[in-house]
Amino acid sequence: MADSTPWSGARPPASRLRAATVMLGIAWQADRRRAVLAFGIFTVQALVTASFAWWLKLLLDGLAAGETWRVVAAAGAVAACVTAGTGLDYAGSRVRMALNERAHHLVERQLAETLGRTPTLEIHETPEHLTQLELLDQESWEFGEAIPSLVQLTNTAVQVVVTVVLLASVHPLLLLLPAFGAPMLLLSSRINGLYELGDELAAAPQRRANDLWDLATLGDAAKEVRLFRLAPEILRRFHEAHREIRATHLRVQGRGLALGFAVRLAFLVGYFGAILFVVDQAVRGRVSVGDVVLTAVLAGQVLNLVDGSGEILQWTLRTLTAASRFVYLNDVASRSRATVDARRTVPERLRSGIVLDHVSYRYPRSEADALHDVNLTLPAGSTVAIVGDNGAGKTTLVKLLAGLYQPTSGRIMVDGIDLATLDPDRWRARVSAAFQDFARWEFTAGEAVGIGDLAGVDDRVDPERVTAALDRAGASDLLDTLPRGLDTQLGPSWPGGIDLSGGQWQKLAIGRAMMRTAPLLLLLDEPTAALDAETEHLLFERWTAAAAAVRRTTGGVTVLVSHRFSTVRMADLIVVLDRGRVVEVGSHADLVARRGGRYAELFELQARSYR
Ligand SMILES: Nc1ncnc2c1ncn2[C@@H]1O[C@H](COP(=O)(O)OP(=O)(O)OP(=O)(O)O)[C@@H](O)[C@H]1O
């Protein structure tokens, strides 16, 4: 659980002042007209509420004095207050809802942009960042509360002043009444801190519960859940996670509840004390009946005000915390671009190649390097195969080359330029990749391939380029099996959508990687694992032949990760990784000839199993 508690609930992840500015900016940007309307409505509402008790007192005093004109005027004002109060309440809640919805959508859009702008996978793989992201996801609708909260906070202050003046007009001692509410206000931030702490401590079991819910309800794991009869086990773990969430909330927030109850009790003592005092004054003939009613109504309002202010303060603080998470994630996104040097440009073509210079990489919170002191040269125009046991660091190396991670130490040089200084978007525009754990884009088949290179075609998919990419991927046969060709909707959960086999999905992923015809770097990280060895061999042969001419002009490097030596042996250079270190580098012939070498051993093992 420790991994989900990067800071105590009392300290937000980014400064509250910055968060407040950002939050107000978003709420204002989301809907200016409603923001102004909310300000007007809540201000008038505060004035109406504050003056109600005064009109009531005038009404009663007028009745006691038998002054008809005063009674009629005051009764009219009381009726107007009640009518306006109801109307403003309704209008206020509508405006608030609309404002909330718009601000919520704007925050979600900006958050998605922030994540999309983050070049590395750091946000998704660092528990601290993940916790912020998940909590913000739950809290993003609170941004809409920014303007109403601020307006209400100001209006509450106005209302407090009016109430204090009116109370003092009855008897100065009544000014003690608001003092009984002070503990409630003072402790509200502490109580709020306890609620936030509860949310954060419960973030890890909450994530577990969400994962289990997905496993139990989504199609991804449906086969295994049924086959291994895992439903009861998932349910048991789900219950356990929820028990942990409840216990955490109870443990932390229980203290908040007790505190809240105690401060309310303290206020009630003051409330009844004030009523008894003013009734006593009336019995002695020192104040009027109107004053007694004025005090009773005002005392009730003070409770509402204190309670309301505490609540608004709490909401404002919660909203501020949500905003500070937003600022924090934006900072993480900006930090991951901190090394970029705008003056550097990605070379048009590679002349010397890509050099890894003492590169090490350690995953966040990991205790060992996934890659350690890697020194490698990937010559321009070459095809390089990376081999090694499971967990050797092959995918990590591929992700580093794609710029999805930044080396913990060392540098990756692209024709002598440090990759960390290149604009990640520009570098990505010249990189193409297909991964083993590719995404299944449930778009039309044409879109699922075409998104591999939207640039230059006005973000629209060009059927001719898609067909050519599928041809390069050796996946043209797939088109014949799709009922509406490239227009076929993928994904059985969509109307008219169809599902594909694992191999067919994989062919689309390779097609996507083939959309860019002249990348400086093509990364193929076991993209053919779902295909048979022969198809993989043919595919690689076809790609190598098709790309040879292009590579001669662009100097592009192809990096292939595969466990199949029939494919690997075609590469110009083979890199053998073992537990994060490069242990051998050379051509197939060189490495096989090395007696006792790791490659020779692995090759012999696989060859034997085919004999
Ligand atoms: N996101 C991650 N967080 C922490 N550790 C990770 C992460 N991804 C991989 N690792 C660790 O880094 C090491 C290298 O993993 P990597 O995926 O690069 O291996 P690989 O050679 O590609 O393995 P495989 O052949 O099974 O795909 C492994 O010890 C793995 O446990």
Automatic annotation (TrEMBL):
Annotated ABC transmembrane type-1 domain residues? 36-304
Q: Which Gene3D superfamilies match?
A: ABC transporter type 1, transmembrane domain (1.20.1560.10), P-loop containing nucleotide triphosphate hydrolases (3.40.50.300)
> Sorted alphabetically, which InterPro entries does this protein's record hold?
AAA+_ATPase, ABC1_TM_dom, ABC1_TM_sf, ABC_transporter-like_ATP-bd, ABC_transporter-like_CS, P-loop_NTPase, Type_1_exporter
Q: Name one GO cellular component term.
A: plasma membrane
Q: Which UniProt keywords apply?
A: ATP-binding, Membrane, Nucleotide-binding, Transmembrane, Transmembrane helix
Membrane topology term: Multi-pass membrane protein
What molecular functions are annotated in GO for this chain? ABC-type oligopeptide transporter activity; ATP binding; ATP hydrolysis activity
The record's listing under SUPFAM superfamilies reads: ABC transporter transmembrane region, P-loop containing nucleoside triphosphate hydrolases
What taxonomic ancestry is recorded?
A: Bacteria, Bacillati, Actinomycetota, Actinomycetes, Propionibacteriales
Taking every annotated instance into account, which residue ranges of this chain make up the domain ABC transporter?
354-604
Q: Which residues cross the membrane?
A: 35-56, 68-92, 157-180, 257-279
Its name, as the record gives it, is: ATP-binding cassette subfamily B protein
Q: Where in the cell does this protein reside?
A: Cell membrane
Q: From what superkingdom does this record's organism come? A: Bacteria
Point out the signal peptide segment.
Answer: none
